């Protein structure tokens, strides 16, 4: 295994890696370029895996998420910036101020590839700048620069200004926070090139470090990064062929993602009775036909597979859809999206079926740098509080915050972004904090896990999603793993009401997701057209790493998941945190195919722990950690 | 004279010109590159002058401004894109749908230089595309492209999308319209690189042609464009030295423009009793201290002369000020500006002293592609109608449109941009149309000339400005000429109440402005640090043109002004159109140093006509036209 590395202590450029980690300490202004250690790369591959290693080993137990000791890590994977289809991802990792847990959020676009082409696999941000700064990277030149002059600006303007400021022979690429992140609002995210690394409040961490943006320009080429170009090209060709022929990912065969974007699944999810409506009170939205994929494509999105679309770098799927609002009071607003998650949380979950209002609410989430999923979820929670008279207009700045009020939705998002009034901060810090402030039993229907709002799949209509949400490493996440396709869209014919087999499904899928997508730098959406094994077939020639077989590759995913689990355990999270809101565990789904269901978490969680090799409290056992080569974790968890 | 051209029939690149005019017919899709004729260049120099020649000779009398026969001309001057300080201007010229007259509007930024570097002095747009298109220019490659996919988008998003779409080895530059222009709103303008070619509704003309944008990338170099580089460099050095030492334009000596931007003059203009307040009801705003230059610099603008400022290309003055709204409901909005004109018309003229609201109103003018001056003027007019109960909340979509209502201001701008409700179209088409619709004597206080709203200098406090407004070729313009400095700021100690000598001042200054600034491609603001003769000293080595003396140069300005005058005469404009609103002619200024004054236009206009060599109706005489070499005009005006 890893025979290429016998003679090398560090990963060299041309092995799927740039070979260098950039370390920037904002307190001391030290800038270091560290060779990427081969042992680490062997064990954790890249992106999420690598970042988990650094965060675990470099932060101390109990680190304050918004303190200078917390670290903020931007990391790419070995396929980022290569010719692998959709090899455009990077992740942002830190200890979340929203959940107190590990968080990794991922983004496409082109910032990740640009960082790699500049010569870096990732950046570790340490400390806290004395005043607002941004980091400017042009290949080997890295400087910390004054950001006072645009501190306060929205993300769109920030990107524009930095591109203009750093005009050169190649467009600079920008990842930044908006005013929400500057204010350390807990739902603040990082926006890069109008795409969001969305969940978990790392925008607040970036703000706490007085870091407004990272702008980068790189002159490397995708081809420079490959260990075995001939074999790699062969594997890439197979991947392209599969994606192109898939009824989901193939533009030429009118793939659903290409034609309708992520919103293509709304019909199916609503039909399955699992479309979160009015703060998860029901799983069917009676107005779904107004805002499902075909309606959006007809009335809001730019023409499908338009020659003008601007997809993520090197993406053959083309799921990006530009929305241009052509009528009504918001005419003229335009932005990429809204995605399925946005339409759900800002739409159905808030009872809103005004397409334009949903699109504008999403626009402003990007504008201010806010997680649209959590913002929508929190507004929905507050709408229910308002309808239940737990809050009144005196608490909402006079806004009539009832379900379905499209204007109220937009106003609430704008106030959250601006931090304005009483309503703004209530929305901007998430439903857990809001429930704590409101009290009066509201926590029962604050729909989050560990503080992170539940995304766009009603788990009572998909038991596996319930388990997925309850124990994912960053709180309620729909992507680690995404069992909704198998359970709700009939992709694999799995019964959504059944608990049997779900622990296994969640375990296996989480490990595969962690390695094949979240640690390689390739977009998860390729999974609609090809398998994790096809990704594996690209990773091998890209890195030159040798594996016995695919299962050894998946084991890296298991290692990564144990490491993030260990991080959370170290930070004090236990079984009691692996739970779901009262509503989902106790209140029966009132209608639809899964009518009468609650999430039977007790039937799945112990089995899941066992499959993972964790004890009854959800703590990774010494044996498991040892077997995965995580001895350095044992020391910290078992003293 | 013009001895270099003896052997050349066309202007060659390297004589201050790119040497080529691009002609794009959107009806036929014909794209032609025409050599720039030396005779024309000799007679009209560039920018405004050249465009006036083309528009006059290529359109027929009575051409409908929004019909396919109207032409839309983008033109640079011989200093555009050269190393001349502030040599970054281009103009957009057409027959205005707002005034029915000639209009040229100018913009800085970098689009003009980029066009020149791509190899074109200007573009003549003809016809009308069958559907939404944009033009993409990369050096000699010019194509007409589909714009359906982003038709409807605001100008910021449009710029971003086209830059992304045309990523290359140099950032593409974009001039575009927003949704206002698409709807052919009469106050629609052209935005390029977040700067406005603002006045006269050419955005509507662009919209009428279904032309969303012109994106351009050029690989030429500034140095390529100069006839005599050594002499040119010497003249440029003199210009830089003068600008650098000026107390207005020198950043190093804390020049007022550099430190406070254009808003630096608010104090002085208000003190002179000439700051248009509440629709020109008074000339003093009691809240001026809240929004004058120093207050804006303290609370709104980015730090003065910040290292991060993004000025127009090759500008040593640095008047650009970024505003970042840091508090209140609009926190997070950020844009270049608001400029003096914006602060006046959206602020004092509407009775608004909320800095953030003014900045946001200006942001949305840019966002939708609207002329902020005319929008502010029209809203102020409607506010007066509302307070006089000529319109009510049923006409304003329920908005309480009283003077000083900052929220109403922003809402009115947004509705104008979106074309929404009853109020939107009322604002978006200007005060003349609004007054015609409202009737009931409102036209008496609709403050426009020929349909173009009067800008930020109260003419009862400066007789010369009154004359300037009344007879300028594009309606009420503050820049052809700008006598406000001489009359109101005491720059030349000229008595603002006096009418004597003003005709001469206006005549001479208009000719100098037309040639030295509006036709060379250099920013008018250099005039605060150097003279028109210094511009002349750069034009000569740039073009290689020989002149007897400076006065011969100014005569080109006179020729240009007679040509645009002749255009207006041909279109039916006469002395009756060279007038001012009732209020300014009949109602005495109620307070301030010029209390009791009205504009005594009758005392100045006949003298002005005489000085110009025009007859008593304001029509250029045959003799004058002949003397200026405008024989082709005589044929059209005198049959």
How does this structure look, described?
2 copies of one chain form a homodimer. With 639 residues, the first copy, chain A, is an alpha+beta fold. The first copy, chain A, has 3 domains: 3-225, Aldehyde ferredoxin oxidoreductase, N-terminal domain (Aldehyde Ferredoxin Oxidoreductase,  A, domain 1); 277-446, Aldehyde Ferredoxin Oxidoreductase Protein, subunit A, domain 2 (Orthogonal Bundle); 459-638, Aldehyde Ferredoxin Oxidoreductase Protein, subunit A, domain 3, CATH 1.10.599.10. Chain A has 26 helices and 16 strands. In chain A, the strands form 4 sheets. The first copy, chain A, has a 6-stranded mixed sheet, with helices on both faces. In chain A, β7 (133-138) and β8 form a beta hairpin. In chain A, α1 (38-44) packs across α2, α13 (355-368) runs parallel beside α15 and α20 packs across α22. Chain A is globular and about 65 Å long. Mean pLDDT of chain A is 96; it is low at 1-6. Chains A and B meet through α4 and α15 of A and α4 and α15 of B.
Task: Note the quaternary state here.
Answer: homodimer
Q: Output the CATH homologous superfamily of the largest domain in chain A.
A: Aldehyde ferredoxin oxidoreductase, N-terminal domain
At CATH level 3, the topology of the largest domain in chain A is Aldehyde Ferredoxin Oxidoreductase,  A, domain 1
Q: Name the structural class of chain A.
A: alpha+beta
Beta content of chain A: 5-15%
Q: If you compute it from the alpha carbons, what radius of gyration of chain A comes out, rounded to the nearest whole angstrom?
A: 23 Å
How confident overall, as mean pLDDT of chain A?
96
Major sheet size, sense and barrel closure of chain A: 6 strands, mixed
Distance between the termini of chain A: 31 Å
Strand order of the largest sheet of chain A: 2-1-6-3-4-5
- What is the class of the largest domain in chain A in the CATH system? Alpha Beta
**Residues in helices of chain A, as a percent range:** 25-40%
Number of distinct helices of chain A: 26
Weakly predicted, low-confidence segments of chain A = 1-6
Largest interface: A-B, 54 and 54 residues
Could you say which overall geometry of chain A the principal axes of the C-alpha atoms support?
A: globular
Number of strands of chain A: 16
CATH structural architecture of the largest domain in chain A: 4-Layer Sandwich
| Count of all domains of chain A | 3
């Amino acid at each position: 295994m890893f025979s290429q590395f016998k003679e090398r202590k560090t990963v060299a450029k041309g092995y799927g890696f740039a070979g260098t980690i950039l370390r920037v300490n904002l307190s001391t202004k030290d800038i270091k370029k560290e060779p990427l250690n081969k042992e680490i790369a062997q064990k954790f591959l890249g992106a999420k895996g690598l970042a988990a290693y650094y965060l675990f080993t470099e932060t101390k137990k109990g680190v304050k998420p918004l303190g200078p000791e917390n670290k903020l890590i931007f990391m790419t994977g070995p396929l980022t910036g290569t010719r692998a289809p959709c090899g455009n991802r990077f992740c942002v990792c830190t200890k979340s101020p929203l959940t107190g847990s590990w968080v990794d959020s991922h983004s496409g676009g082109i910032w990740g590839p640009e960082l790699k082409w500049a010569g870096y696999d990732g950046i570790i941000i340490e400390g806290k700048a004395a005043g607002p700064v941004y980091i400017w990277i042009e290949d080997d030149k890295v400087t910390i620069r004054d950001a006072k002059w645009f501190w306060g600006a929205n993300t769109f303007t920030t990107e524009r200004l930095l591109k203009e400021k750093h005009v050169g022979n190649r467009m600079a690429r920008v990842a930044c926070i908006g005013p929400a992140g500057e204010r350390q609002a807990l739902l603040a995210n990082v926006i890069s090139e109008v795409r969001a690394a969305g969940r978990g409040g790392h925008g607040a961490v970036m703000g706490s470090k007085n870091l407004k943006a990272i702008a980068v320009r790189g002159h490397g080429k995708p081809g420079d990064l490959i260990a075995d170009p001939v074999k790699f090209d062969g594997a890439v060709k197979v991947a392209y062929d599969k994606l192109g022929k898939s009824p989901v990912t193939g533009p030429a065969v009118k793939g659903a993602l290409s034609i309708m974007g992520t919103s293509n699944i709304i019909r199916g999810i609503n039909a399955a009775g699992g479309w979160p409506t009015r703060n998860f009170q029901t799983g069917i939205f009676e107005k779904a036909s107004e805002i499902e994929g075909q309606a959006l494509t007809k009335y809001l999105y730019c023409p499908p597979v338009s020659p003008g679309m601007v997809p993520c770098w090197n993406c053959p799927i083309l799921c990006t859809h530009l929305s241009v609002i052509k009528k009504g009071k918001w005419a003229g607003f335009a932005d990429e999206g809204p995605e399925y998650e946005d339409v759900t949380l800002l739409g159905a979950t808030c009872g809103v079926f005004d397409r334009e209002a949903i699109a504008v609410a999403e626009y402003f989430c990007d504008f201010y740098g806010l997680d649209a999923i959590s913002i929508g979820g929190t507004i929905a929670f507050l709408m229910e509080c308002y309808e239940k008279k737990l809050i009144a207009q005196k608490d909402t700045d006079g806004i009539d915050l009832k379900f379905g009020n499209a204007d109220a939705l937009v106003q609430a998002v704008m106030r959250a972004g601006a931090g304005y009034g009483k309503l703004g901060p209530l929305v901007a810090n998430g439903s857990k904090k809001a429930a704590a402030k409101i009290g009066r039993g509201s926590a029962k229907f604050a729909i989050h896990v560990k503080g992170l709002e539940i995304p766009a799949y009603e788990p009572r209509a998909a038991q596996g999603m319930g388990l997925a949400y309850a124990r994912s490493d960053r709180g309620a996440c729909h992507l680690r793993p995404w069992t909704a396709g198998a359970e709700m869209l009939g992709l694999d014919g799995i019964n959504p009401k059944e608990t049997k087999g779900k622990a296994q499904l969640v375990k296996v899928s989480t490990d595969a997701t962690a390695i094949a997508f979240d640690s390689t730098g390739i977009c998860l959406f390729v999974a609609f057209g090809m398998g994790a094994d096809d990704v594996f077939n690209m990773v091998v020639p890209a890195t030159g790493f040798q594996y016995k077989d695919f299962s050894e590759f998946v084991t890296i995913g298991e290692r990564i998941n144990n490491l993030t689990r260990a991080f959370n355990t170290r930070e004090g999270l236990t079984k009691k945190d692996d739970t779901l809101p009262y509503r989902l565990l106790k209140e029966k789904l009132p209608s639809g195919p899964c009518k009468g269901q609650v999430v039977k978490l007790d039937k799945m969680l112990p089995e899941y722990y066992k499959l993972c090799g964790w004890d009854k409290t959800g703590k990774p056992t010494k044996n498991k950690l040892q077997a995965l080569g995580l001895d350095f974790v044992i020391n910290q968890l078992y003293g």
